[in-house]
């Protein structure tokens, strides 16, 4: 009788475990298509119910849903407990690596990102037969998302175009269109964007709401706004907001909200702009998705400057400067990570070539041991080749290091210094100048209506304009002064040993020569002008952030007073020319 009860108990436990196993597998398969349902299923599970790799799958799903809700650091900590190298379930290993790649990119840990990218590609190359076609496609999507994150938009469009020729489900076609559209919008290729939107709507009109569909709707609103900046676009965006919030993907929500704030500000609806800015920055959690917060701080500074609330304007401007500094550092780290990844590939290839050379050398010595004279000659020949190779490799390494140093200091487009180098040099000089009590000034200048140049004549003409301004300024400025591109169409000049009046005179001269730039080489007819803001240590002291904030406030005053002007910072922002 006891044996019968034991047998029945085993059957019941087995059925219960099988039910839990099936439910776990369903939650895993639904994580992308229906994340709400997948999350609800996982919330009702305990890791203790499972053993082995099934317990690892529960850990992964919890980490996946943390990432969806913006809890990136917690998500990475959870996934770090999973040993992907030793997982027998390659589907699970692929899922963990794809999510880790996205999250590492989200928190800007570029070294870990490229390490994960390498492991992901290795798995894709070495174990394709252990992965379903859907998983392989998901891995390609993840790699494409990473390239989007680091700004390689052409690579994204190319990968999605290649993937389009494969057999795809309708959901995956929607993901292809979503990624392609996002890259095209970032490139401001609005004509191609419209074609992609139409293809998405032809294929995806009946699919369930997903991350892809929400991202496409946001990008579609951006295209509509570019074509016709009207109130109706804002109303469509506001009507779409509850659906995005309900879906629970934080980056989409913040991107849409800051876009609504930007549109409202451009239509001079100050109250609505502030309302949506507060939605973005109200929780005070930037969560690694810096871009919407950076834009929100800038809008808040602009709005408060416009309504004469200078205290709040300075507060938000400082927040913008601090976060922008973080993004600039991340950009520099990304550049170094990319160069290091390329360097590591070259190093591996060189080591393989060296190993191959050594193997050939040993083989030659063994075969020609009977003929000493020939063996000696061949040995000397191979040693010479090896020495030449090592000399070449040493030269190459020095060249790479020099290129890395230049990349860390010089803006790639204008060949002026970049923001990071400008900040470092200014901080060093200000410390020394403070002791000497030597007057020093900073000039900030921003090209007027630069977006119109890009929109009207294309980004190549816009790039030409930036380079022309940089060349013109370099030709006029003293060699002891430092010119840098701070980002976008904004430049800064560090005038060591100059007071405010001298800086105003220099800024006015710069304003005149910029206005006289001949645009005929572009085969377009337009005038380049710039607005200037000036601050000096006499007014605000030797603190670099204060100097930059003061010059930026004066610059905003120049913008608000009609552009193509020079303003000096003072407590009441009085005009000086």
Describe the structure.
The protein has 23 helices and 6 strands. The chain has 577 residues and is mainly alpha-helical. The protein has a 6-stranded mixed beta sheet, with helices on both faces. A hairpin with a 2-residue loop joins strand 3 and strand 4.
Q: What's the quick description here?
A:
This protein has 577 residues and is mainly alpha-helical.
Task: Describe the secondary structure blueprint for this structure.
Blueprint: H1 2-29, H2 35-43, H3 52-68, H4 72-79, H5 90-106, H6 110-126, H7 133-149, H8 153-163, H9 170-186, H10 190-204, H11 211-227, H12 231-247, H13 250-266, H14 270-281, H15 290-306, H16 310-367, H17 372-409, E1 417-418, H18 419-436, E2 440-447, H19 450-457, H20 459-476, E3 482-487, E4 490-496, H21 500-515, E5 530-536, H22 537-540, H23 544-560, E6 566-568
Parallel strand pairs: 1-3, 5-6
Antiparallel strand pairs: 2-4, 2-5, 3-4
Helix pairs in contact: 1-2, 1-3, 2-3, 3-4, 3-5, 4-5, 5-6, 5-7, 6-7, 7-8, 7-9, 8-9, 9-10, 9-11, 10-11, 11-12, 11-13, 12-13, 13-14, 13-15, 14-15, 15-16, 16-17, 16-23, 19-20
List the secondary-structure elements in sequence, H or E. Answer: HHHHHHHHHHHHHHHHHEHEHHEEHEHHE
Q: Write down how many β-strands occur, each being a DSSP E stretch of 2 or more residues.
A: 6
Beta content: 5-15%
Q: Give the overall pLDDT as a whole number.
A: 82
Computed structural class: mainly alpha
How many helices does DSSP assign? Answer: 23
Strand order of the largest sheet: 1-3-4-2-5-6
Main sheet attributes: strand count, strand direction, barrel closure: 6 strands, mixed
Task: Provide the gyration radius in Å.
Answer: 29 Å
CA-based shape: globular
Helix content: over 70%
> How far is the N terminus from the C terminus?
104 Å
Uncertain ranges:
1-17
